C-alpha cells in the first residue's frame, strides 16, 4: 500500500506579515502546491491521498478555493481521506459540509477515531476536530478492535518530541503502539518528523519566512506487517526566505541598498529582509523603504522591516544639552509608555527633523 500524506496546507491563509498584494501571490503559491500534490499522487502511483488537517483556513476559505479542492480531488482515481484540524474544524457551518465531494473523497467527521477499510487487511482510523480549541487526545482510552494493519490519521501534537505552544489533541508516542496501531499519520506540527511510531509531513508550502528544509509530501509505503518506508517530496509552489542585513558602518543610503540587494541576489521567491545595526546620522532610510521590484526584479516579492537600529548618536551627551534637542531626548527617554523599538523610531525621526532633515518613514 502506497499512501501520499500531506497536511497543513492552510489554503487562503491571511499572510498578514506580507501585506495584501504579496499575500495574493503567496495564496496563489498555496493553490499551485495543491496542484503539485495532485500531480505527485498520479506520478507516484499512490493508492490513496491523505490529509492530516488544516487543509484550509476556515474563516477565510472562499468558494473558489473549495471548488478548486473538489475538482482536484475528483480528478484523482484514488481514495482521498481528509481529517479536519483546529483551523479547518468540522462543525455545523464547516466548509467541508458546503462541498459536494466526489465519491472518492471521505471526510472524517467525528471527534473520535472511527474506522475505514482502505483495502483488505488495512484499516484507517481517523478523527476530526469539532472546535477550534480544547480538543482532547484521540488516543486516550482508544484501542483497535480488529486484526490486520491499523493506521491512524489525525491532527494532533505529540508532546514528547515536539514543542508546539498549544498541544492540540495531545498524545505520547508510546500511546500509538499501546492502542494497537501500527503507525500514526499526522498533521499540526509544521516541522517534518519521521518517528518510528508516527510521521509529520510538515506544511508543504512556507507560511512564514524562514521555513526551510525537506517539508512537503511523504509517500508512505506500508508493508503487510505494518512496517513503513517513507520518501519525502518537495511540492512547494514557492519559497519564502528570511534574511538579516547588518547596516552597521554604512555611510549613506545607497550603501544600505547595495547590502540588501547583495543579500537577496541569489534567492528566489519571496524574501523578508530585516535591517539592523548602528546608523550614522547622515544615513537616510527613506531610500531603503523604496526598495522593491525595480531593485529585485528576480523575486516574487520583497518585504522590508526594521530590526534593532542604533541611532549613531551619543544620547547621553545629547540629553545633557540645554537645547531643544536635549529636552526632546530627555522627554522621549523618560516616556514610560514607549517600548524600545518605538522609542528608537521616535528619537530617530525627531533628531533628523531637528537637524533639518526629513523624518524617516517606518520600515516594514
Give me some keywords for this one.
Purple Acid Phosphatase, chain A, domain 2; 17 strands; 2 domains; six-stranded mixed β-sheet; 364 residues
Fold and architecture overview:
- The chain is α/β, with parallel strands linked by helices and 364 residues long.
- It folds into two domains: 2-233, Metallo-dependent phosphatases (Purple Acid Phosphatase, chain A, domain 2, 4-Layer Sandwich); 240-354, no CATH class.
- 26% of the residues lie in helices and 23% in strands.
- It contains nine helices and 17 strands.
- It has helices at 20-43, 63-74, 95-98, 173-178, 253-264, 286-289, 315-319, 324-334, 340-354; strands at residues 2-6, 48-51, 80-82, 105-107, 114-119, 122-126, 149-155, 157-158, 170-171, 183-187, 193-194, 198-200, 217-222, 228-233, 240-246, 270-278, 301-310.
- The strands form four sheets. A six-stranded mixed sheet has the order 4-3-2-1-13-14, with helices on one face. Strands 5-6-7-10-12-11 form a six-stranded mixed sheet.
- Strand 13 (217-222) and strand 14 form a beta hairpin.
- Helix 1 packs parallel to helix 2 and helix 8 (324-334) packs antiparallel against helix 9.
- The longest helix is centred in the N-terminal third of the chain and has 24 residues, at 20-43.
- It is elongated.
- Mean pLDDT is 89; it is low at 358-364.
